[in-house]
């Protein structure tokens, strides 16, 4: 038996993939991984997709860090004092390391840091693994061959340029423990990328042909749909988010304050200080000012308003265009 699973993010490419599956007339499941850091319009868009298209309801999955946070508390209680961490820091961390129900925040609490371009554990932990555990694994374990439909286009980036339209893949995500990968070694899983040769224009035209308005975020200055903001967000996008959706900046500011309190050094920023040409200056010196007012999201928002006079570095995370991690292969993050 073949089971088709379409990953839906609320973005234009995964929506076109859902429409493509619908056109084919094959039975399929659609799944959305809620990171807890999406715009409310994206949630509304995904919730309404089935009713607006006549397609299948989208299965909603969420990562749950309850057990891992409990282990983290145990670890901190038994190890941090021996590592010289102050009693008040330990007490604060133990009081805050409880699940909030928001997957993104809970992940950062568990890791006691935010993800970054170089440590992009968010895609695996918030998208790939929950989709695998909650939807794909049961199908594979029941003996089905699983075809994962992914809305990836070759012209999006160099990393995606050479991806094949159809490909057999390891059924269990690389980030899972070796014994889980071993157990699933004989399962059959494939990736199908029906949009691989499409342009963005094709994708929007396809929405029109189906009479489906795209996610309204595209009409409000956003070039991509996903976490708002994404840790790999570029300067112009950050500026647009701050202007149009300031409550999302407030959210990150609150998260920075909480995650900082569970971190050993008392500081954790949404954007990686060391990746950043302005804030990274002197970061390895003992007198470096790590305060959130200097290196936190607000400082980045202020910088995002600058141009050359503000020591422009528009490409501070342009590497995002060409990222080569599992994100690009799975099309999990637009
Ligand atoms: S959209 Fe960005 S922050 Fe969100 S999971 Fe993907 S890479 Fe991580």
Distance between the termini: 30 Å
Low-confidence blocks of residues: 312-329
Write down the overall geometry: globular
Tally the beta strands: 6
Q: Ions, cofactors, ligands: which are bound?
A: iron/sulfur cluster
Spatial order of the strands in the main sheet? 3-2-1-4-6-5
Number of helices: 14
Radius of gyration: 21 Å
Integer tally of domains: 2
The percentage of residues in β strands lies in 5-15%
Note the main sheet.
6 strands, mixed
Structural class: alpha/beta
Named CATH architecture of the largest domain: 3-Layer(aba) Sandwich
What share of the residues lie within helices?
40-55%
Q: What's the CATH first level of the largest domain?
A: Alpha Beta
Arithmetic mean pLDDT: 90
Describe this structure in words.
Residues 4-231 form the Phosphoadenosine phosphosulphate reductase domain. Pfam families: PAPS_reduct. InterPro entries: PAPS_reduct_dom, Rossmann-like_a/b/a_fold, Sulfate_adenylyltrnsfr_sub2. By secondary structure, the protein is an alpha/beta fold. It has 2 domains: 2-64 and 119-222, HUPs (Rossmann fold), CATH 3.40.50.620; 229-319, no CATH class. The chain has helices at residues 12-24, 40-53, 66-79, 87-96, 103-111, 121-141, 158-161, 178-183, 200-209, 235-244, 246-262, 292-295, 297-304, 326-330, and strands at 2-7, 29-33, 58-61, 145-149, 166-169, 189-192. A 6-stranded mixed sheet has the order 3-2-1-4-6-5. Helix 2 (40-53) links the parallel strand 2 and strand 3. It binds iron/sulfur cluster. Iron/sulfur cluster is lined by residues 35, 115, 120, 122-123, 126-127, 226-227, 230-232, 327, 333.
